[in-house]
Task: inverse folding
C-alpha cells in the first residue's frame, strides 16, 4: 500500500492540474477556476518558503547540539526524492505537452504548472521518504 | 536486518543524542536505525558498534526473511 501511495497521489495531482488547465482555457480569466490556479501558485510558494525555514531551523538546532547538519541518511533521502521526482516529472511534462497541443493555453502558464508540479513532487517524495525511511533497494 | 542499538544504548546509559555525537550523525538517523527504517552503511555500522563497545555482528543481526 505504501508503495502505491506516491504514484497514486502524484497521478491524482497531475489529473487535477490537468483538469484545471483544460477547464481554465475555456473560461474567462477572471472566472472561479482562475482563482483556484492562483491559490495553487501562491500555495506552492508559501509551502516551499515554510520548508526552507524548517530546514534552516533544523540545521541551526543540529549545529547548536554539536551534531552534523547532513549525514548519510539525509543525503540518501534527498538523492532518492530527487530521483523519484525526476521520474514522475517526465510524465507530468508529457501530460502538459498533450494539453499544449490540444488546448489554447498560454505556454508560460503551462511552464509554471510544470515547475510547480516538479517542486511539489519533490517535496511529497521527500516527506514520504523522511517519514517512512529507506530500506534496502 | 534487525539491530540491538536501543538495548545496548540503554545498557551503556547513552541517549540517542550521545550516540549521534559519538558517530557523527543526526539524532534522527539513530531514531530511524532503532525503528528499523534504515540500514546503515558499513562505516556507520562499524562506528555504532564501536560506540556501543560491541562487535558489529552483535549489534546488527542479518535476518534474511525480513529483507
Result:
Amino acid at each position: 500500500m505504501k508503495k502505491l501511495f506516491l504514484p497514486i497521489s502524484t497521478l491524482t495531482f497531475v489529473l487535477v492540474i490537468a483538469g484545471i488547465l483544460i477547464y481554465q482555457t475555456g473560461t474567462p480569466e477572471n472566472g472561479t477556476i482562475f482563482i483556484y490556479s492562483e491559490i495553487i501558485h501562491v500555495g506552492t510558494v508559501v509551502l516551499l518558503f515554510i520548508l526552507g525555514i524548517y530546514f534552516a531551523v533544523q540545521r541551526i538546532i543540529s549545529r547548536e547540539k554539536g551534531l552534523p547538519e547532513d549525514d548519510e541518511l539525509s543525503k540518501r533521502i534527498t538523492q532518492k526524492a530527487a530521483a523519484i521526482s525526476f521520474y514522475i516529472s517526465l510524465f507530468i511534462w508529457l501530460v502538459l505537452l498533450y494539453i499544449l497541443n490540444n488546448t489554447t493555453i498560454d505556454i508560460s502558464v503551462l511552464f509554471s504548472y510544470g515547475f510547480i508540479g516538479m517542486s511539489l513532487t519533490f517535496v511529497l517524495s521527500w516527506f514520504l521518504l523522511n517519514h517512512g525511511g529507506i530500506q534496502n533497494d | 536486518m534487525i539491530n540491538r542499538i536501543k538495548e545496548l544504548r540503554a545498557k551503556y546509559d547513552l541517549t540517542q543524542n550521545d550516540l549521534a555525537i559519538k558517530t557523527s550523525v543526526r539524532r534522527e538517523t539513530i531514531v530511524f536505525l532503532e525503528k528499523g527504517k534504515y540500514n546503515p552503511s558499513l562505516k556507520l555500522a562499524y562506528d555504532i558498534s564501536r560506540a556501543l563497545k560491541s562487535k558489529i555482528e552483535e549489534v546488527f543481526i542479518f535476518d534474511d526473511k525480513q529483507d
